[in-house]
Amino acid sequence: MKLDTKIPQGKLEEKWRNYQVKSKLINPANKKKLNVIVVGSGLSGAGAAATLAELGYDVQCFCYQDSARRAHSVAAQGGINAAKNYQHDGDSVWRMFYDTLKGGDFRSREANTYRLAELSAPLIDHFTQQGVPFAREYGGVLVNRSFGGVQVQRTFYARGQTGKQLLLAAYSQLSKMIRAKKVSMFPRKEMLDLVVIDGKAKGIIVRDLVSGDIQRYAADTVVLATGGYSRVFRLSTMAIGCNGSAIWKAHKKGAFFAAPSFTQIHPTALPQSSEAQSKLTLMSESLRNDGRIWVPLKKGDSRKANEIPEEERDYYLERRYPSFGNLAPRDIASRAAKERIDAGYGVGRLKNAVYLDFKHAIKQFGLETIKDRYGNLFTMYQKITGVDAYTKPMQISPAAHFSMGGLWVDYELMTTIPGLYAIGECNFSDHGANRLGANSLLQASVDGYFILPNTINNYLASEIKETTVDTDHPAFFEVEKEVKEYIQQILSIDGNKTVDHFHRELGKVMWQECAMSRNKTGLEKAITQINKIKESFWSDVKVTGHSLELNTELEKALRLADFIELGLLMCTDALEREESCGAHFREEYQTADGEAVRLDDQYAYVSAWEYSNGDFKLHKEELEFEFVKPTVRSYK
Amino acid sequence: MKVAFRIWRQDNPNEKGGFKEYQVDNLNADMSFLEALDHLNELLVLRNEKVVAFEYDCREGICGQCGVFINGRAHGPHDNVTTCQLHMRSFQDGETIVIEPWRAKSFPVIKDLIVDRSAFDRIIEQGGYISAKTGTAPEANAIPIGKEISDRAMDAAACIGCGACVATCKNSSAALFTSAKINHLNLLPQGQPEAYRRVIEMTAQMAKEGFGHCTFTGACEVECPEGISITNIAEMNARYFKAKIFS
């Protein structure tokens, strides 16, 4: 199968307009007759659901949480990028496009990345109009700050809770359309499978998480906006409920999975403190604007941080990457931290952390300024660790954070299943092998608010002529039956180990072999181990309670069963890519001083995996760089 | 570390429910409170019992999904902290910890410690938004907003919708929640066109959902994880009167 990216003709800056001019339209009277299912209510899902409803479509929106306002976009702290050039520091759409493409180590499409940058400025206008209280100057204009991998200030923020404020704006707009009866909102319903009829996505099967009922929902098109799958590592910065099940089920129904192993490990999370830990809390990357990262020069130094004099500190990011310093991109900062920790310079009780120090910033700008910039992050740090970071440096450590990989989508954000779209973090589109900070809120929003509402019509225009499928179609009953049997199968195992037990096992393997640095032997070993975990899960897991009730243990088991299979694909993908690029660092491919070696002549493609009977078949989307020349990504 | 959890168990909304005590060993002080409950649930599974149903998602204090009454206080012993940000170091070894769901008529129990807070969503649906369609926005810097106003709007906008304010209020009032949203939007120039309608319709929905009236005890702001001040309620009342007179 040839992957058709549907990238429009023309110059880079004209492509999106060219697309819009040619895209088919639907008249308002017909839009009313068309139904859209949106799974997920985060920034991309809520943004899409609200906007599609405003356009006149009939929308049904689903989320597993108790309210649309909980989706994990809420947790993004630092900000959202936009090429407004308000700071007059030489920013432009082109520069933002180039930063994003380079940040992704030239493993994403030029056309998609350009469009992301192009649509960033109107997005800030949109959110301001929706009442997002972005940070402002006394004169009333918007403020910016910088983020990793970038030398201009283009990040907009709302204290340390930008994601929350954007999500609440999206949720507000969604609420408006719920009141207008154009969106039917279904919280506490989790998608368990996709219904494909005559090759097209026509509906979903969900489990009502309160009653346990399995229910069928039909529509003319299905949009997945289900977020990232970094919980495959168990310990991550994701919400506990974040999962990969919806996209995994879609994958098994024919949607190709692109670059599954590209996972961002965030450099500034709080370190793990015990085996029982369920998640790692992120400390926003924005802290790296003013905080300086260091470890002691002496191995195993047992002195307290404040007792170590300046000359005995190793500000290793500033040392290795003088031009970007503490603002080196995430993959580089994480790997550099891992390198120091592995070499025995880690700090903290478990020696698994590095320091992030604000001493100099407080001296330079004053305590009040630092409090104004990061107050809630310092408070959060104190709540979790009991330590006052205004007087002692923070301890931070890398943690799994973002899935660059996801369902393969074309320029219209459609997957390889006609009528099935993937938007936001659950697709692979704009970030390549590494996402720049403050680009995730941007991508989720742009996908949901601006792109999908302009591309979905191109598909639906031809669907008007088709007869509408309803949930009485035999295909719905068939999938419903499979889902019910699958649930019974899990419940009937009645083994002697908990779901969390298996999740910890999986997480350890994935973190060890498929995270910040990877190698052939390790990945092959990981595949064997995960297959064993899978076998053991299906013979030894124990889930109490039954299916027709609120059963949180069953929810976890269903999600984990998919994570195990996804883990296999991630390792397979990482094994296949014999080069280092972005977050994918293969130990066999590095320079003498430990920098990544990218092999453009062999690996300048997006891996797109097809599921076939438990096996994965590789397809390649060759990346063509028509407008920029890939260079060695250096931040030195 | 060892504690006894005395937990409210209720299989469904119609069942009466009651407390059940569980001894839990092998905890450590660095564990979060919810991780201790995870640990209990793993023990229950291995004992072939149903797990305790409780809510959480982000576990970093920002999504607002978690929230239980611990030893008679919403979100536990500390001021202004979510349940997920509470750690076992806040309890004594050997302590008995009493855990209940939010208690409010408008938040009916679904199961064990899980309640239905959809009343909050319905309040937001009555005007907790700015009616502007995607694609209609003017340039972001076209309307300057002074830092003081913007900061006050931000303070109010910080609400995470956890419901602790309702749970801790003797009247089960949702005034802090509702006022935070109204003030956030009504402070901003973008929120002006619908300012009067918003305050009238949202407060009407609040009453319709059965939340009690605010008698200004101040209990809510102590528990609010975002430290939202009760001055918001006074401000909402002022806005309400103004809206009644001028709209």
How many domains, in number, for the residues of chain B? 2
**Overall 3D shape of chain B:** elongated
The termini of chain B sit apart by 60 Å
Helix content of chain B: 25-40%
Task: Report on the architecture of this protein.
- The complex is a heterodimer of chains A (636) and B (247).
- The longest helix of chain A is centred in the C-terminal third of the chain and has 25 residues, at 552-576.
- Helices cover 37% and strands 16% of the residues of chain A.
- In chain A, a hairpin with a 2-residue loop joins β6 (189-197) and β7 (200-208).
- In chain A, α3 packs parallel to α13 and α16 (520-540) packs antiparallel against α17 (552-576).
- Chain A is globular.
- Among the domains of chain A are: 266-400, Flavocytochrome C3, Chain A, domain 1, CATH 3.90.700.10; 480-604, Methane Monooxygenase Hydroxylase, Chain G, domain 1.
- Chain A is built from 18 helices and 20 strands.
- With 247 residues, chain B is α+β, with helices and mostly antiparallel strands.
- Chain B has 8 helices and 7 strands.
- Chain B has helices spanning 33-46, 118-125, 147-157, 164-168, 175-187, 195-208, 219-223, 231-246; strands spanning 3-9, 18-24, 69-70, 73-74, 96-100, 109-111, 114-115.
- In chain B, the strands form 2 sheets. Chain B has a 5-stranded mixed sheet with strand order 2-1-5-3-4. In chain B, strands 6-7 form a two-stranded antiparallel sheet.
- Chain B is elongated.
- Chain B starts with a strand and ends with a helix.
- Chains A and B meet through α3, α6, α7, α12 and α13 of A and α1, α2 and α3 of B.
